[in-house]
Amino acid sequence: MALLDIKNLTLEIEGSNGWMKALDKVSMRVEEGEIRALVGESGSGKSLIVRSIVGAIPENFRITADRMTWKGKDLLTMSDMERRLIMRSDITVIFQNPLLSLDPCATLGEQLMESIPGDLVKAQWFWQRAKSRRQMAIKLLHKVGIKDHRKYLKAYPHQIADDIGQKFLIACALVSSPKLLIADDPTRGMEITTKIQVLKLLSRLNETRGLTILFVSHDLLAISSMASRMTVLYCGQTVEDGKMHQLRKRPLHPYTKALLDSAPSFRKDLPPKSPLAALDGTIPTLQHLPIGCRLGPRCPRAQKECVKTPELRHVQDHFYSCHFPLIRDKQ
Amino acid sequence: MTALLNVEELCFEQRAKHNWFNQRSGFTLSPISFELNSGETLAIVGENGSGKSLLGKLLVGAEKPKSGKIFLNGQKLSSHNIKQRCLNIRMVFQHSNESLNPGITVSKILEEPLLLNTQLNTAQRLNKIVETLKMVGLLTEHMYFYRHMLSDGQRQRLALAKALILDPQVIVADEPFAALDPSVRSQTINLIMQLQKDLGLGFIFISHNLGIVRHISDRALILKQGQLVETGKTEVIFNWPKDKYTEKLVTSHQSLIAPK
Question: How far is A283 from chain B (nearest CA, A)?
C-alpha cells in the first residue's frame, strides 16, 4: 500500500478575477521506503503541495482532492487533532533556508531539546529528564554526522555554517522517528561539497532506517544522484511521472526534455560554448495562466489541440500528460 | 599583443577582528596573477568563503587591494582614476532583484550610470538606453516598467543591461545564474555567450556550478580559503586535476552526474 496517495489535488486561490487554480489535478503516490523527487521551477506549486500535505494552508484557499490518504486514512476529512497527531509522529518537513528557520536568539541545543516531545523522555524526575533530553539530543546529532556536539549545542544559528544548519534541521526532524521526511529544497544555494554531504546523509537515512523521502527541488543534478522516481510539475500541473533512469534516458514530455537539456552537465557530447537548448519566454504568473496545457505558449511542439488540458496517459508505469509526446511515430 | 586584463600579484588582507567568538586573524587573499584576453571567459571557482566574491570586488574597485597591480590594455589602473575603471570593468551582482532600485523605472536605473560617467545629452542617453534594452532582448516599452513588474529572467537581463550600457571591455559576474530557474538560466547563458561573441567582451564568471563553468569558460581559477590552488584551461583542469582539492571538487561533481 502506498504511504501517501494523492489523486487529483486541486488548490484554488481567490484573486481579483475569480478563483485561480494554483494546483490543477496533481496526482502523486509515495511508496514506502523510496526516495521520490518532486521537480519544478519556482511558481510551479511544489511548496504548495508540501503545505497541503502537512495542512499548513490558509483558510481562504479552497482545497479539493479525489483522494488524499496517509496509510489509507483520508487526510482531508479527519479531525484537526488526528491530523496533528500524524504530523507529529509520522511526517516531518525540513525547509529550504536552514539558518532562517531557526530561532536566532536561542542556542541550537535549546531548540533541539525543546523539540523532543515529553512522552519520548523516559526518566521520572526533572533533573533526570533534563539529562536524558540532552543525551537524546547528542545522539541525534551524532546520527546526522555532527561529531563536535559540545561546540554546536552551545552555538547560535548565526555562528554555524550552512551545511551544519541543514544537518541540524534534519536532526530536529528525526526526533520523533518519522516515516516520511519531506525535504523542501534542502540544498538550495549550497556549494557542491556541502550539497553532497547533505544528499549522502539523506540517502543513508533512507537505506539504514527505511525512511521515505519526498525530495522537493529544482536542482536536477542533486535529484538524479539520489532519487528513484521523479514527478515533474509545471505551473501546478503534473507533467510527467516515472522512474528516474527512464525519464533521463527518454523523456516523453517536451518540458522534461527542456529541463534535462538545461543542465549542461548531463550532456557529454555538447561542445563547449555551444548554445544551450532553451524554451522561450518565462513561467506565467498565476493571474495570467494559459488555458489547457499550461506549457502551451512556450512549447515547441504546441498545436491547436493544446488548448484542451491533456489527460494523464501512461506507458507501463511512466505517466505523462501531453497530446504530442516525444515518442517516435508508429508507422 | 597585450592581454585585455592583466592582474599581477594581487593581495588583500582584512584587518583582524577582535570578537569573542572567532579569534582567527583577518582573511587574506594570497598573491593572485592571471591574464584575460578579449572574448575569453575566466571562471573563478571555490567554496563559500574562499574569496571568490572578494576577488571580483577587487577587480571592479569596490575593495582596495593591499598590494599588486591591475593592468587594463597595458595601462595600470590606479585608485585615483575611478572613471577609467567604471567605464571598462562592470559588475553583475548575484541577486539581481536586490541590486535594482524598486522606486524608479527601468529607464532611470539605466540612465544613472550614463549621467555619472558620460557627457551624453538627453536624446543620446535615451537612444543608448533603447539600444541596450534591445541588445539584451528586452522591449522598448520595458523602459517605463518598475522592478516588480519584471520576471526573474527579465531582471537578470536588466542587470546585464546595466553593466553593458557603458560599453565595457570586461564584465565581472558574481553568481549571475544562482537564483534563476533552469529554463530561464539556459536563456541567460545563451544571451551572455551571444553578447560575448558579438562584442568581444572579456568575461569573469564567479560560480560554484561546475556544470556551467565547464560549458562556458575557457580558463578556470580555483580558490581555496584565499589561496590560489590551481589555474589553467578548463578542459585540462576538469580532466587532469593536479591538486587534491580540485580533484575533490571534480569527482564530487562527476558523482552527481553519474546515474545511480
Answer: 8
Please give the mean pLDDT across all residues of chain B.
Answer: 82
Q: Strands, E, within B49-168: which ranges? A: 67-72, 75-76, 89-92
Residue written as grid cell 506549457: A295
Nearest CA in chain A to B187: A278
Chain-chain contact of A262 with B183 (C-beta, under 8 angstroms): yes
Q: Does residue B132 sit within a domain? A: no
CB pairs under 8 A between A and B: 107
Q: Does A192 touch chain B (CB under 8 A)?
A: yes
Cell numbers given for A197? 554531504
Give, in degrees to the nearest 5, the angle at Cα A36 between A35 and A38.
145
Beta bridge mates, B187 = none
Is some CB atom of chain B closer than 8 A to the CB atom of A123?
no
In 3D space, the residue among B153, B204, B198 whose CA is nearest the CA of residue B177 turns out to be B153
Residue B65 amino acid letter? P
Given 3.40.309.10, 3.40.50.300, 3.40.1160.10, 1.10.10.10, which CATH number is that of A4-99+178-330?
Answer: 3.40.50.300
Question: Which residues, in sequence order, are CB contacts of B26 under 8 Å at separation 6+?
Answer: B13, B14, B15, B16, B17
Question: For residue B59, what is its C-alpha cell?
Answer: 577587480
pLDDT of residue B19: 62
Task: Enter the ipTM.
Answer: 0.72
User: Could you give the count of Cα atoms lying within 13 Å of B144 in the half-sphere of its Cβ?
Assistant: 2
Distance from CA of A290 to the nearest CA of B (A): 17
Residues A243-262: pLDDT tens digits? 888 888 888 888 888 888 87
Can you tell me the distance from the alpha carbon of A309 to that of A321, in angstroms, rounded to the nearest whole number? Answer: 8
pLDDT digits (tens, 9 = 90+) for A177-209: 888 889 888 877 677 777 888 888 888 888 888
Domain region containing B201:
5-94+170-256
Determine the Cα–Cα distance for residues B33 and A102; give it in Å rounded to an integer: 41
Q: Please report residues of B whose CB lies closer than 8 A to that of A164.
A: none
**Paired strand residues for B232:** B220
Read off the amino acid at residue A87.
Answer: M
- B79 lies in a domain? yes
Count of CB atoms situated within 10 Å of the CB of A249: 10
Name the region of A183 (left: φ>0; alpha: ψ -120 to 50; beta: rest): beta
- For residue B9, the domain's CATH number is 3.40.50.300
DSSP codes of every residue in A19-71? EEEEEEEEEEEE-TT-EEEEE--TTSSHHHHHHHHHT---TTSEEE-SEEEET
- Does the beta-carbon distance from B256 to A224 stay under 8 Å? yes
Residue B51, amino acid: G
Q: How far is CA A15 from CA A18, B17, B150, B235, in A?
A: 6, 51, 20, 51
Decide: helix, strand or coil at residue A273: coil
Domain spans of chain A?
Answer: 4-99+178-330, 104-159
The span from the CA of B242 to the CA of A10, in Å, is 54
Radius of gyration of chain A (CA): 21
The total domain count for chain B is 1
Indicate the pTM of the whole model.
0.79
DSSP state of A151: H
Task: Judge whether residue A330 has pLDDT over 70.
Answer: no
Instruction: Answer whether residue A157 shows pLDDT above 50.
Output: yes
Strand partners, A37: A215, A230
